[in-house]
Write a structure and sequence with these properties.
single chain
């Protein structure tokens, strides 16, 4: 009988050690996950944005007019996709003359002083489609889908929850709102 009691005591010890190990492992995993999330947040919030990437080619410094909410949403898009969004800006602020030169519509949200639109290079169909879906998830409600770029704007004076293709008026190849 003494042997049975000792065996039961050892089982409780092993059970206790196993439970303690699982609790410590779980706490460590939660700690690492929170630390990673906090680090990403710090990178997003404290990383300086070079506004010159938004400049109209004919007016240096014009990228300073870019809407701050748009920039914040682009930071969220970058964090969500892992793509270097700010390195892929194709067009941001536009003077009326530059807008005309690139074939932009007369009421373009790119035009100064509105500055509520960007075009982002999409190096492949997969990247383009990922950008479109992630942009919707971040909160963009106006998305233009080209073959090699994605247009995003936050112009609340225009129709919302719309996607379009290029040339203007054609349906978008991928529409995140349907």
């Amino acid at each position: 009988m003494v042997v049975a009691v000792i065996k039961n005591d050892n089982q409780h010890i092993y059970f206790g050690l196993g439970t303690l190990s699982l609790l410590l492992l779980g706490a460590f995993v939660v700690y690492k996950k929170q630390k990673t999330t906090i680090n990403r947040t710090k990178i997003i919030r404290h990383q300086p944005i070079d506004l010159s990437v938004f400049d109209s080619p004919d007016v240096p410094g014009s990228g300073n007019c870019m809407d701050r909410q748009l920039i914040f949403m682009l930071q969220q898009l970058e964090a969500r996709t892992g793509y270097p969004i700010f390195s892929w800006i194709n067009s941001g602020a536009r003077t009326p003359s530059h807008n005309k030169k690139v074939g932009g519509v007369s009421n373009s949200s790119h035009k100064m002083p509105t500055c509520k639109a960007v075009d982002i290079k999409a190096y492949s169909k997969t990247i383009r489609n990922n950008l479109v879906q992630a942009a919707r998830d971040v909160g963009f409600k106006r998305i233009g889908v080209g073959k090699t770029f994605v247009h995003l704007d936050i112009d609340n004076l225009k129709s919302q929850y719309v996607a379009w293709g290029y040339p203007s008026g054609t349906p978008a190849e991928v529409n995140p709102f349907v």
